Amino acid sequence: MQFIDTHAHVYSEELLPDLNQLMQNAISSGVNKIFMPAIDSHSLEAMLSVERAFPENCFAMMGLHPCYVKENVQAELAIVADQLSKRKFPAIGEIGLDFYWDKNFVSQQQLAFNTQMQWALDYNLPIVIHTRNAIGETIEAVKPFAKKGLRGIFHCFSGSKESAEQIIGMGFHLGLGGVLTYKNAGVAEAIKDIPMEWLVLETDAPYLSPVPYRGKKNEPAFIIEVAKKLAEIKNIPLHEVAAMTTKNAEKVFLTPDAVML
Ligand SMILES: [Zn+2]
Fold first, then answer.
1. How far is the CA of 9 from the centre of ligand 1 (A)?
2. β-sheet bridge partners, residue 127
3. How far is the CA of 256 from the centre of ligand 1 (A)?
4. Across the strands, what pairs with 59?
5. Could you tell me the sign of the dihedral formed by the alpha carbons of 15, 135, 180, 239, in that order?
6. Which strand (E) or helix (H) includes residue 3?
7. DSSP 8-state secondary structure symbol assigned to residue 203
8. What is the pLDDT of residue 259?
9. If DSSP codes are grouped into helix, strand and coil, which group holds residue 32?
10. Domain membership of residue 110 as a residue range
11. Which of 7, 38, 93, 210 pairs with 47 at a CA distance of 20 to 30 A?
12. 3-class SS at 201?
């Protein structure tokens, strides 16, 4: 079985010391492709160095994460723009709105999100969206761009059934991770009737480890636990979950202007 981890921060300081072991675990579990969302300029070099070390397996996205949007937003966006002009990326991400941690930079977050969605259209790339305490605002912000053909993934989906339907109605995929395995999270119920073609898997490593690894550092190999849970919810064999979510992830990231897988 093959899996694609559509969202893992394998370059994070928590995971870097054990990177070789983590990659061995991933590859021996069938997780051959890992997409790395960018955060901001501080972690850029670490991300690109992981990509250089594992060019067949790890693919860097480019973007400015909403939690890292501060008063220096223009300088950070200029670095994203520079990177986008220099080389190819499979996606722009992770970008979006986060009103959970800090509401001091809402207007800057909106500016950064809109700017980066326009760049995704300009470069014909998909986006990977981070949204927290802002699902309604995020869907509204994406709508006009989706009408112009923008596509991508709502990463770590944990919204309602109504949100899930609105998202796939815009042609966007839902990224499912460890939260799917948590009791009472409600995600299982929200996605139960969403067709498989709109679902992709992720770990969000090192965060949000699936059951039974809760409390431990998450890593791409643990994606199997999310896949097992999805197989149970959909009542289909695990190998079908693997095949379908892999195909979906390839469809999202394999755009003509992105890197070749
Ligand atoms: Zn993330």
1. 7
2. 92, 152
3. 24
4. 35
5. negative
6. strand 3-5
7. -
8. 58
9. strand
10. 3-253
11. 210
12. strand
Q: Say which amino acid occupies 105.
A: F
Q: 67 CA distance to ligand 1 centroid (A)?
A: 10
User: 257: CA distance to ligand 1 center in Å?
Assistant: 23
Judge if pTM exceeds 0.85.
yes
Please give the mean pLDDT across all residues of the chain: 96
Asked whether residue 258 is assigned to any structural domain, the reply reads no
Whole-number Å distance, alpha carbon 209 to ligand 1 midpoint, is 13
The structural domain count of the chain equals: 1
Mean of the pLDDT values across residues 6-28?
98
Q: Is residue 261 part of a domain?
A: no
Does 261 have pLDDT greater than 80?
Answer: no
Is 223 within 8 Å of 53 (Cβ atoms)?
no
Cβ pair 223, 29 in contact under 8 A = yes
Task: Quote the ligand 1 centre to 204 CA distance (angstroms).
Answer: 5
- Residue 194 Cα to ligand 1 midpoint, Å, equals 23
Ligand 1: centre distance to CA 187 (Å)? 18
Rounded Cα distance between 59 and 51, Å, is 6
Task: Judge residue 184's burial from the number of C-beta atoms within 10 Å of its C-beta, 0-12 exposed, 13-18 middle, 19 or more buried.
Answer: exposed
Q: What is the CATH number of the domain that holds 33?
A: 3.20.20.140
Position 212 in a domain: yes
CA–CA dist 126, 90 (Å, integer): 7
Digit-coded pLDDT (tens) for 166-186: 999 999 999 999 999 998 879
pLDDT, average across residues 106-117: 98
Split at pLDDT 50, 70, 90, the class of 79 is very high
Pair type for strands 199-201 and 3-5: unpaired
What is the C-alpha to C-alpha distance for residues 159 and 34, in angstroms, rounded to an integer? 24
Does any domain span residue 70? yes
